[in-house]
Inverse folding.
């Protein structure tokens, strides 16, 4: 025992160092000596306490009855120790090859021999300590239950654990040797500059010449690693029962089930639609709905015309205006334009679309779509005869009401009465038109807004179950779709959004263009699909783990933007036609399309960032500066933060320096001062210097006391400095003082996390937050951040 | 021992949270244009949102810090930080509180508490805070054991503890390979693979040579003043990416003479790796001592000091051989040269080289010509120790490229 104690003091490396293992083995047996030594001062009479005073842990609690105490102590620590040993690091490192087994296989026998006696000694220790311990089958549960209990108190529990966790190390050393074979790596190309004749013998023993090297913490090696020239494989293997208990499934956090009081939770960001999975029976359109749609404003001459009129060719012929065809896009149109050059017809010019419309609606359809549109315009094809496959026929995919999660949560935690007090706008309580929709959006009642878009679209013939049935698109219907889809995305209901976007395909269907409806939109051309919807359509797949598709779509949009810009710069109209634009209009159009291009590039960079393709993301963000020079400071700071996220502080510093220069150029307005200070704070944070980081955030607050980011971040720093109460107090007072700014999910998440860390009564405090949120926030409030459920 | 007692409500509550680095909040921009139905309401919502970057609301990476959301992974060489909070949940004053945090690993038990002195009293709704840090030095199961003892107002001494188990994983996979150059230099190629699930910024990967060697890192391309990394500007490793580092080790002058006769396993040095991840979370590892089996040279080592890389067909060229006596005795050597199918030696075979004492070496210039084009192997040298009548054969000593001397028929 004395002998074995000495080596156990040595730090054990995770090195391939075989000698380590006997040590580790003995460590299991030896600590009680250690602990005995420490527990001498115990005084409290053990028998009188109903609670196990862990003598070892508390030298201050004194105990005379050292003997009785130490047994438990011993067992106690046996439990801990033996668990550890059975979970030998060797099991993790099967691919690690002790160099010596490769380089000098003839030394193996020797090595094993030298190890032999030590191992025996360790075994003896085990035996003496655990007289009747060796039953490996049942104990698993015993130890498991212990960990579930978490709090060890009774000695009988400890005993069961002891039985369970103790395992005589079986002679598995040979296994360890077996695992020491070389991993099968591909051969590296042999370096030919060296003559082959002198390739060392070692090469023959190591087929690929590569030796897996064990890595370990540097400070850990000090003292014993400088002379390991005999490396012996470790002997200990995990005992079957315990290794099962301790199985860790790779990257999954094994501690999660254990750490219930680790104040953590799963990601709170995603909201799932409670109704999405089990769609209820179709809610029949309510009667008042019809009247609602009746009162819908008619923003333009393009108010919906009964479908029959669009599609009856007979009624169309006479009305069709030459202008309609003369404004077809594409080069082939020039000859048509020649035919219809009599454009000075007053009727035609009255109908000609406004310059602004043209600018915003411009789009370059795909070749196929373009051909269809031309044939529609030139009467070669009747739209009614078009193959349905080429048409976009959307319909609501779900029309169950979205509900109000905040209210549900209040019902659950605060009772029916409190929930009654919650007053939010619903789809019923606003005007059944665009005005009402806008009201719902700006009051953050996005769920109700989704409901309302559903009603308005139903009135438009694109309601629930109408997908796949021909219907007409117009400016309003597509705007409604855009709003609906945008809100679904904002609500993180990505699946629903994808489902409803599906009938739109790639937004290339001919019936999504004005040219398809020459009677309704005489003379108007371009895309009815708003540009923002195209961007949304492109962005959606990335939220559903299909970022590559997002990039593909964004590149498509980007190339159209670039083409339109080059058309404009070369003196053509947006679509490449020869129509003359006034200088003013051209400039306005270039400006619009440049901003659109930069919006698409933002999306691309954001997507690349989510894909963790930092090189490209930084490149794209950098190139946006050219389009949005006024955002230079924000963009450079953002790039700097990306580098901090990777861990590359030096490069981040470089970008932050550029930010400072850019600010100086502008003469340092206080606003920019804050961004400089903010950046400095993040650098301090990355250097683990929370004190200075806190300082920097505080100085931002001196300039801009209401800055919510600085306030929140300063509080976060306080927590890392061990000042939980202060941090909590600060955040709490902010939320109460200025709920408009601080009832944000990130702040609330931080606050609830701190509540959980602070006391066992976090639920009450969270409920108070719920009440605060309930009187301010709309139905789109992300309740997950309160961590009540 | 009353088992029910164990279920008793404690006056104090112990909470533990792992302090990984905070994360930057990312928002989700959904925009529209002025002409679209929502008008300016989307952009107004984004501007009012405190988590967006003001002036650049479409940038998803914001500045708002959020606390860690889950325990996450912890890797060997990283620092385990944890917040330990003991809160008095009761309405009474509690005395003599001692909080102790130990970390139990497979080989040892470490005390992580900053202070081991008891707090004399704790008022209701107050808490004792501690932030512990520990550089993780072992792989496998770790258990954080937090023990709290205290005395109630009635003088009852109470005690409880909690266990928090977590696994420490291996972050990197390191493989090495040695190449022995003719010139006693050793080249070390190290393949380092990121086996975590997040990108890793490699701050430092250096070789700390053992006493015998000087090291030159071959991982930068010198371009004027600035040396540029061979890995380009972005020096991070994506998950499961592997990177190759190359080092050249030269024996120090005082060992250089002996290097020729170094035998067996020698210690080359160790790799020191420092990386950073999210917001500067740092990790550091060292490999064990890298060892190399010195190439065995037998009793007599023959190496080449000079050889042209390209020679003309059927034209004699010079090579210089260095012969080193690696044995413990003096040798009397005889050099024989045997022609092969393509290699023809010029000069007299069976030449006496004289006596060569241990560790001494001598250089001999030789002439040779090749009768075959292409890459030819120099072979056929035989050294005989006349004392022991032992012959050492040297084939495939080096290669030369044999070319036809005339580039075009006209010339």
């Amino acid at each position: 025992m004395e002998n074995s104690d000495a080596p156990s003091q040595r730090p054990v490396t995770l090195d391939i160092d075989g000698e380590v293992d006997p040590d580790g083995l003995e460590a299991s047996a030896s600590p009680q000596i250690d602990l005995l030594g420490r527990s001498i001062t115990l005084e409290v009479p053990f028998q009188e306490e109903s609670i196990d005073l862990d003598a070892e842990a508390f030298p201050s609690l004194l105990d005379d009855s050292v003997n009785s105490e130490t047994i438990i102590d011993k067992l106690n620590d046996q439990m801990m120790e033996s668990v550890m040993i059975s979970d030998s690091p060797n099991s993790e490192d099967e691919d690690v090859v002790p160099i010596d087994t490769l380089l000098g296989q003839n030394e193996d026998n020797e090595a094993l021999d030298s190890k032999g006696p030590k191992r025996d000694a360790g075994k003896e220790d085990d035996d003496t300590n655990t007289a009747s311990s060796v039953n490996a089958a049942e104990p698993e549960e015993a130890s498991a239950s212990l960990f579930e209990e978490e709090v060890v108190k009774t000695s009988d529990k400890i005993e069961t654990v002891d039985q369970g966790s103790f395992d005589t190390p079986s002679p598995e050393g040979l296994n360890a040797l077996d695992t020491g074979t070389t991993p099968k790596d591909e051969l590296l190309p042999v370096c030919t500059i060296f003559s082959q004749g002198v390739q060392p013998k070692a090469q023959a023993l190591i087929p690929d010449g590569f030796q897996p090297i064990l890595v370990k913490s540097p400070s850990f090696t000090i003292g014993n690693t400088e002379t390991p020239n005999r490396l012996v494989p470790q002997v200990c293997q995990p005992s079957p029962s315990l290794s099962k208990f301790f199985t860790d499934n790779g990257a999954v956090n094994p501690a999660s089930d254990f750490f219930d009081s680790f104040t953590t939770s799963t990601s709170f960001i995603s909201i799932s639609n409670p109704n999405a999975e089990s769609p209820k029976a179709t809610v029949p359109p309510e009667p008042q709905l019809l009247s609602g749609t009746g009162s819908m404003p008619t923003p333009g001459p393009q108010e919906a015309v009964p479908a029959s009129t669009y599609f009856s060719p007979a009624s169309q012929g006479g009305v069709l205006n030459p202008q309609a065809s003369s404004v077809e896009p594409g080069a082939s149109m020039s000859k048509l334009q020649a035919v219809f050059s009599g454009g000075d017809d007053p009727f035609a010019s009255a109908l000609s679309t406004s310059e602004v419309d043209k600018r915003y609606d411009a789009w370059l359809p795909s070749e196929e779509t373009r051909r269809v549109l031309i044939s529609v315009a030139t009467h070669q094809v009747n739209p009614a005869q078009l193959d349905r496959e080429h048409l976009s026929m959307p319909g609501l995919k779900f029309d169950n009401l979205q509900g109000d999660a905040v209210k549900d949560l209040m019902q659950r935690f605060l009772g029916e009465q409190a929930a009654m007090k919650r007053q939010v706008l619903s789809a019923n309580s606003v005007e059944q038109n665009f005005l009402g929709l806008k009201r719902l959006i700006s009051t953050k009642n996005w769920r109700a807004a989704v409901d309302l878009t559903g009603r308005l679209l139903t009135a438009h013939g694109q309601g629930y179950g109408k997908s796949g049935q021909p219907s007409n698109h117009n400016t309003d219907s597509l705007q409604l779709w855009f709003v609906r889809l945008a809100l679904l995305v904002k609500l993180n209901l990505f699946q629903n959004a994808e489902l409803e976007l599906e009938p739109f395909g790639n937004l290339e269907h001919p019936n999504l263009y004005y040219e398809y409806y020459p009677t309704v939109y005489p003379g108007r051309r371009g895309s009815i699909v708003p540009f923002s919807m195209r961007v949304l359509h492109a962005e959606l797949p990335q939220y559903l783990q299909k970022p590559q598709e997002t990039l593909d779509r964004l590149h498509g949009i980007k190339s159209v933007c670039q083409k339109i810009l080059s058309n404009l710069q070369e003196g053509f109209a947006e679509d490449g036609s020869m129509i003359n634009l006034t200088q003013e209009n051209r400039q306005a159009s270039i400006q619009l399309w440049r901003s659109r291009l930069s919006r698409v590039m933002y999306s691309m960079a954001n997507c690349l960032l989510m894909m963790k393709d930092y090189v490209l993301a930084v490149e794209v963000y950098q190139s946006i500066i050219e389009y949005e020079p006024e955002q230079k400071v924000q963009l450079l700071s953002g790039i700097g933060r990306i580098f901090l996220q990777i861990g590359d502080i030096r490069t981040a510093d470089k970008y932050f320096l550029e930010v400072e220069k850019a600010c100086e150029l502008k003469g340092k307005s206080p606003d920019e001062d804050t961004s400089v200070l903010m950046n400095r704070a993040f650098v301090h944070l990355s250097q683990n210097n929370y004190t200075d980081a806190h300082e920097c955030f505080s100085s931002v607050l001196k300039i801009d006391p209401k800055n919510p980011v600085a306030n929140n971040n300063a509080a976060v720093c306080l927590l890392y400095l061990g000042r939980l109460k202060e941090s909590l107090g600060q955040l709490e007072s902010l939320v109460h003082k200025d709920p408009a700014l601080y009832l944000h999910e990130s702040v609330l998440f931080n606050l609830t996390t701190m509540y959980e860390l602070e006391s066992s009564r976090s639920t009450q405090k969270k409920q108070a937050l719920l009440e605060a949120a309930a009187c301010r926030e709309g139905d789109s409030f992300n309740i997950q951040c309160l961590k009540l459920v | 021992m009353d088992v029910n007692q164990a279920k008793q409500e404690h006056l104090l509550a112990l909470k533990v949270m792992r302090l990984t680095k905070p994360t930057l909040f990312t928002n989700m921009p959904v925009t529209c244009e002025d002409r679209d139905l929502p008008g300016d309401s989307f952009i107004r919502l984004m501007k009012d949102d405190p988590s967006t970057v003001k002036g650049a609301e479409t940038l998803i990476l914001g500045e708002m810090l959020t606390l860690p959301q889950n325990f996450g992974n912890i890797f060997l060489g990283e620092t385990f930080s944890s917040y330990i909070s003991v809160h008095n949940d009761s309405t009474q004053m509690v005395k003599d509180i001692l909080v102790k945090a130990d970390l139990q690993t497979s080989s040892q038990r470490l005390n992580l508490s900053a202070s081991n002195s008891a707090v004399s009293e704790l008022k209701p709704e107050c808490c004792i805070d501690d932030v512990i840090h520990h550089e993780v030095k072992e792989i496998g199961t770790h258990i954080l054991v937090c023990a709290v003892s205290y005395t109630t107002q009635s003088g009852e001494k109470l005690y409880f503890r909690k266990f928090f188990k977590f696994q420490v994983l291996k972050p990197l996979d390191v493989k090495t390979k040695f190449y022995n150059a003719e010139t006693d230099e050793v080249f070390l190629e190290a393949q380092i693979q990121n086996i975590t699930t997040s990108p890793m910024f490699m701050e430092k990967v250096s070789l700390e040579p053992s006493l015998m060697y000087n090291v030159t890192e071959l991982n930068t391309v010198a371009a004027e003043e600035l040396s540029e990394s061979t890995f380009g500007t972005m020096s991070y490793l994506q998950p499961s990416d592997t990177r190759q580092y190359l080092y050249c080790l030269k024996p120090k002058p005082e060992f250089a003479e002996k290097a020729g006769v170094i035998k067996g396993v020698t210690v080359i040095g160790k790799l020191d790796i420092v990386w950073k991840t999210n917001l500067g979370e740092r990790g550091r590892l060292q490999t064990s001592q890298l060892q190399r089996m010195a190439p065995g040279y037998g009793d007599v080592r023959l190496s080449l000091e000079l050889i042209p890389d390209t020679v003309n067909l059927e034209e004699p060229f010079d090579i210089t051989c260095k012969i080193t006596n690696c044995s413990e005795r003096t040798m009397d050597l005889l050099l024989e040269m045997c022609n092969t199918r393509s290699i023809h030696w010029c000069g007299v075979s069976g030449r006496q080289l004289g006596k060569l004492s241990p560790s001494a070496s001598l250089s001999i210039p030789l002439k040779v010509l090749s009768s075959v084009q292409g890459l030819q192997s120099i072979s056929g040298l035989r050294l005989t120790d006349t004392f022991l009548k032992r012959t050492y054969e040297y084939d495939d000593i080096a290669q030369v490229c044999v070319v036809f001397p005339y580039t075009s028929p006209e010339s």
Q: What stands out?
A: Residues 1-6 of chain B have pLDDT under 50 and may be disordered. DSSP finds two helices and 33 strands in chain B. The first strand of chain B starts at residue 12 and ends at 18.
